[in-house]
Amino acid sequence: METMSSIKNIRITPRKLGLMADEVRGKSVAQAINYLALSPRRRVAALIANCLKSAVANAEQKGTMDIDKLFISKIFVGKGTTLKRFKARAKGSASRILKYSSHLSVAVAEETKAKKNKKGKKAE
């Protein structure tokens, strides 16, 4: 069983957000929060950490999962709306400026023995 949390229309490019999302994908929640707390990309890490904490709170609210055994099962970064602006250039022309936004979704699930086998660990 999974619980999800999402943030829409974040004013940061999907590429920057996706690079950090790749780093925490598949990790346990405690490892991911520690990694994000010490990350040099603080703005991006804070956004992902907030969404992750929200997903954990959703799981706790449902009451069907053990919070200590949660891991990040899915993390998606999608392209949001693009703001189109212009900058004045020489001889009365203009050049286009695109300001990208993105959507972030995090799903957490409870780790089971079958999932541990998939990662290469021995089942106990």
Describe this entry's structure for a reader.
The two termini are 21 Å apart. With 124 residues, this protein is of the alpha+beta class. It has one domain (2-111): Ribosomal Protein L22, Chain A (Alpha-Beta Complex). Helix 2 packs antiparallel against helix 3 (42-62). Helix content is 38%, strand content 36%. It has helices at residues 14-24, 29-37, 42-62, 113-118; strands at residues 2-10, 70-88, 94-110.
What average pLDDT do the residues reach? 90
Strand order of the largest sheet: 1-3-2
Q: Per the principal axes of the C-alpha atoms, what is the gross shape?
A: elongated
Based on CA atoms alone, the radius of gyration comes out at: 18 Å
Give structural attributes:
36% strand, 38% helix, 124 residues, elongated, three-stranded antiparallel beta sheet, 3 strands, Ribosomal Protein L22, Chain A, 4 helices, alpha+beta
The gist of it:
The protein contains four helices and three strands.
What order do the helices and strands come in, and which of them pair?
Layout: E1 2-10, H1 14-24, H2 29-37, H3 42-62, E2 70-88, E3 94-110, H4 113-118
Antiparallel strand pairs: 1-3, 2-3
Helix pairs in contact: 2-3
